[in-house]
Amino acid sequence: MGRVVGVVFVAVLTAALVRRASCRSPPSPPVTGKKNTVLFLTDCAHGLSKVHVATTLALLQKYPSVDIHYASFPMLKGELQRVSDAANSKSAEARPIQWHELRVPSFIAAAMRTWGDATGLIAPPGVAGSEKLLRDFELVASPWTADELWDLYCQMKELIERIDPAVVVLDSMLRPAMDVSRSLNRTRVVLSPNALTDVLAGMQPWGAPFWKYPALGSGFPFPLPWRLVLANVYLQLRLIYGVVFSPALAAKRRFLSDKGVRDPMPLVDVKFPEAPWISMAFPEAGLPLDFIPSHVMPVGPIVLDVATADKQDEELASWLKRAPTVLVNLGSAVEYDERMAREMAGALATVLESTNTQVLWKLQKACEFSDGALEPVEEHIKSGRLRIESWLDVDPVSLLQTGDIILSVHHGGANCYHEAILSTGVPQVILPLWVDLYNFAQIAEYLGVGIWPGKDTAPMWYAEVLSDGFVRALTGESSVAMKKRARELEAVARRYGGQRAAAEKIASMAASGREC
Questions:
Q1: Domain co-membership, 160 together with 274
Q2: Could you tell me the CA-to-CA distances from 365 to 44, 76, 370 in Å, in that order?
Q3: Per residue in 40-83, pLDDT tens?
Q4: Which is nearest to 494 in space by CA: 431, 423, 428, 434?
Q5: Is residue 12 part of a domain?
Q6: At residue 282, what are phi and psi to the nearest 5 degrees?
Q7: SS3 sequence of 145-188
Q8: Could you give the percent of the chain with pLDDT greater than 70?
Q9: Residue 98 belongs to what H/E stretch?
Q10: From CA 330, how far away is CA 430, in angstroms rounded?
């Protein structure tokens, strides 16, 4: 009985929070700074910042009158220089990006103080992983200490007041940037790589997050079977309760409020209609939604592509031409331990022995381990049919758009998913390891553009299950169907405009700034 009362209490609390958000007083007109001046405030993690960097390149190429300032952490400086050089090589009118370094630990660096390394993120889906999900969600909401949050806030406040941009472009995961731009009531726009359901499920009618949409990190299929609805309700309510009543988050909010920050770290950032929300997700590439707010602007895949693959790495581009290629790229965060590498090697050995393909495998090690883990593929490495790289110096979308990649194996990151969508008829095999990654695995299967092998054992991999998934995506009727659906979705994606549409919106907002 007590549990039922608790559930009802949380449900009522959730409704009250939504009502409070919808009943707040109309905002004052935002403060707009110098005309054609844009300030980006983002984290440096590739998965979070790639949409911002890609949009920066589009701005440099198409809107040379826009003065771009970019504030982030040291790790991103080299990537922005690469983008700036690429734009300048094509147009002498392109202005250099003005770099501003943030002087506290980055989002990932702060989170890794708890996780240790990327393997600390790994968690099973569903109820089994709910306890870790709750801990991780609290950490992801704010990995910084209260003093670090305030330090970041002050640094970015000083930048905004000194640069006086017409528009501030935000990364929703850099919470102090969201807070300071809102507190100063600046003209702002959010650029997001996330699935629309990740952002908007809570705004759907009739309590849809509880019975219609799989809970974050659940790994449940869509449409949600009735037999899983109670488990889904439990996961949603547990997460809501944990976040609303988190002592750590509450203490940080009080600390920032006492410093004068207005409404710090709100539970739902997308609720503010005065801040356009540009999303690279688009309705046709996600789960169906009944309601998309007018200030949310789906623009399709925002991809970073500084040049064709042969211009970025001529030798690698030439190697791709040797045979149809499977790309195994589990993003920038996933690192392999010895067991993971051994299971993947075993699966790739089966693929290479049963098909006429070759494999490009990006293998980042979590720790040093012996070459014995790669024993199943030794002969294929020697023959050149398997190429292993610790990092890819070519933009992944550039590789996919050569036409030589026939299968994209990835971890379920938003960038990898949308890059594959934008490539002609490339099926996806998704191997998620934690929270949000399970969502894109669900979406790919629902839309018929990919498969998630080993969902029953996730996050554990086993060579036999992986190889079966790879072969199904490469051969037979299932492969034909996925390629057909992928081609259809690519045609829709290209109509949205991607980074060019995002740049156009930002440039338009910047052009409305104050004449100096």
A1: yes
A2: 21, 21, 11
A3: 999 999 999 999 999 999 999 999 999 999 999 999 999 999 99
A4: 423
A5: no
A6: -140, 150
A7: CHHHHHHHHHHHHHHHHHHCEEEEEECCCCHHHHHHHHHCCECE
A8: 95
A9: strand 98-101
A10: 9
Same domain, 355 and 253: no
Whole-structure pTM value: 0.94
> In this structure, is residue 22 part of a structural domain?
no
pLDDT tens per residue across span 372-430? 999 999 999 999 999 999 999 999 999 999 999 999 999 999 999 999 999 888 999 99
Instruction: Tell me which residue has tokens 């990364």.
Output: 171
What per-residue string of b and e applies to 321-356 under the rule 16 or more CB within 10 Å gives b? eebebbbbbbbbbbbbbeebbbbbbbbbbbbbeebe
The answer to whether residues 295 and 317 belong to one domain is: no
Nearest alpha carbon to residue 458 among 480, 484, 473, 439:
439
> pLDDT band for position 19 (50/70/90)?
very low
Residue 474: CATH number of its domain? 3.40.50.2000
The helix/strand/coil state of 486 is helix
Domain co-membership, 400 together with 504: no
Hey, which bits of 304-355 come out as E strands?
325-328
Pull the structure tokens for residue 26.
């109309």
Q: Are 152 and 102 in contact (CB under 8 A)?
A: yes
479 within domain boundaries: yes
Looking at the fold, whether 279 and 322 belong to one and the same domain comes out as no
Statement to judge: residues 488 and 506 lie in one domain:
no
Task: Work out how many domains the chain is built from and give that number.
Answer: 2
Residue pair 357/323 in contact (Cβ under 8 Å)? The answer is yes
3-state SS class at 427 = coil
Q: 175 is in which domain, residue-wise?
A: 27-300+497-511
pLDDT band at 25 (very low <50, low <70, confident <90, very high): low
In this predicted structure, the answer to whether residue 6 has a pLDDT above a threshold of 80 is: no
Here the tokens at position 156 are 């970015």
**Phi, psi at residue 174, to the nearest 5°?**
-90, 80
> In this structure, are 425 and 291 located in the same domain?
no
Residues 54 and 175 in one domain: yes
Instruction: With respect to residue 15, please indicate whether it lies within any of the assigned structural domains.
Output: no
**Paired residues of 72 in beta bridges:** 101
Q: How confident is the model at residue 148 (pLDDT cuts 50, 70, 90)?
A: very high
